[in-house]
């Protein structure tokens, strides 16, 4: 009997959880050619879907949008089992925080990426926060097992929801092999032109434009850099999020020194990382923090926060700072921008080594073993 996987985020979302689901399923397809998988996609027509990742992976879609399904399943609480769309399955893996109704004999696995809406409620859109606060705890308690993106997220699930430790497995994300140093001058020039960066040196930050990414403090710290860095730009790559008006207003006040590019195509990210003098990722909370590892894999020194999952992801390869302190961010940027060549080279080597510890192949192996244990 098949295993069902919610592939909707991979279809709906360009980055973030969408990338996570695409990469994980692609690695699973490369690792397992025997088990049949049904990929559930909400809000899609069968003829609009990309090719399945392997012959043993088959789409099961519905034109009902994810929003409509959420209203039916989680607001109206209608017990319409997901098997009506995905077919009978031995196990259903919900990949995006919430678990739909299932038939009684179907085993369930739920991925919880982070609990930022609970840990930092003021950083979440009020309507989304209210929805997640109601649905995620209920889903977590109902699931047979839970995947957490990090040990920090696992600890949050235990502390905030009382989930037994034995019910949670940490499954780390991987770094795609596409993320490697990209210094070809033609590629660099094309990417700089595409995103309006020009020829200036730049500090890069990557992530959706929203309060949790701490862009306001990052811009304050950047604006306070010594005048010898006056020609430096801050390039923020990420789509519009929520509660973002103050962020855009502050960027406008800093003029041409700060560039918000909007969403960047995944294929352009290695060049964007590689062209930066450093990556600044002073997030207030992360379930994992994949840009940290992607920057390291591209040979860029990384500044990040000493909170949530980021220390376990960054190891000893990043410069860790207090994300609540503008001065700490400023001092960290100066340290990375001005460290001597030997310290810089050693930091880059530590970054390469740290990034290599996280692979989608290892994640797929672990996931397949967990599927087998649950069924």
TrEMBL record:
One of its GO terms (biological process) is lipopolysaccharide biosynthetic process. The keyword Transferase applies. Gene3D superfamilies: Glycogen Phosphorylase B. CDD domains: GT4_MtfB-like. It holds the Pfam family Glycos_transf_1. GO terms for molecular function: glycosyltransferase activity. Residues 192-345 form the Glycosyl transferase family domain. Residues 15-176 form the Glycosyltransferase subfamily 4-like N-terminal domain. Keywords: Transferase. The keyword Transferase applies. This is Glycosyltransferase family 1 protein. It comes from Candidatus Thermofonsia Clade 1 bacterium.
């Amino acid at each position: 009997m098949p295993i069902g996987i919610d592939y909707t985020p991979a279809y709906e979302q360009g980055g973030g959880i969408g990338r996570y689901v695409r990469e994980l399923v692609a690695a699973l397809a490369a690792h397992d050619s025997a088990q049949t998988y049904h990929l559930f996609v909400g809000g899609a027509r069968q003829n609009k879907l990309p090719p399945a990742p392997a012959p043993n992976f088959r789409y099961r879609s519905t034109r009902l949008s994810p929003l409509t399904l959420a209203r039916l399943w989680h607001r109206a609480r209608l017990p319409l089992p997901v098997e009506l769309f995905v077919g009978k399955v031995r196990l259903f893996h919900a990949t995006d925080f919430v678990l739909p109704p299932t038939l009684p004999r179907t085993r369930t696995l739920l991925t919880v990426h982070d609990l930022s809406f609970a840990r930092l409620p003021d950083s979440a859109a009020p309507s989304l926060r209210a929805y997640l606060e109601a649905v995620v705890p209920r889903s977590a308690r109902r699931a047979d097992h839970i995947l957490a993106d990090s040990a920090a997220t696992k600890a949050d699930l235990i502390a905030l929801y009382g989930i037994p430790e034995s019910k949670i497995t940490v499954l780390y994300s991987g770094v795609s092999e596409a993320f490697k140093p990209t210094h070809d001058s033609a590629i660099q020039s094309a990417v700089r032109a595409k995103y309006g960066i020009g020829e200036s040196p730049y500090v890069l930050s990557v992530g959706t434009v929203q309060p949790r990414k701490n862009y306001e403090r990052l811009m304050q710290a950047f604006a306070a850099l010594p005048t010898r860095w006056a020609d430096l730009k801050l390039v923020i790559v990420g789509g519009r999020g929520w509660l973002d008006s103050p962020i855009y207003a502050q960027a406008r006040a800093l003029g041409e020194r700060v560039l918000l590019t909007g969403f960047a195509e995944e294929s352009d990210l290695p060049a964007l990382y590689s062209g930066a003098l450093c990556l600044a990722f002073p997030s207030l909370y992360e379930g994992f923090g994949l840009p940290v590892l992607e920057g390291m894999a591209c040979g860029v020194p990384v500044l990040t926060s000493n909170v949530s999952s980021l220390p376990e992801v960054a190891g000893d390869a990043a410069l860790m700072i207090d994300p609540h302190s503008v001065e700490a961010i400023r001092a960290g940027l100066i340290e990375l921008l001005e460290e001597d060549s030997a310290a810089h080279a050693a930091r880059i080597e530590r970054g390469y080594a740290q990034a290599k510890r996280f692979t989608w192949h290892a994640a797929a192996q672990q996931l397949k073993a967990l599927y087998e244990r649950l069924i």
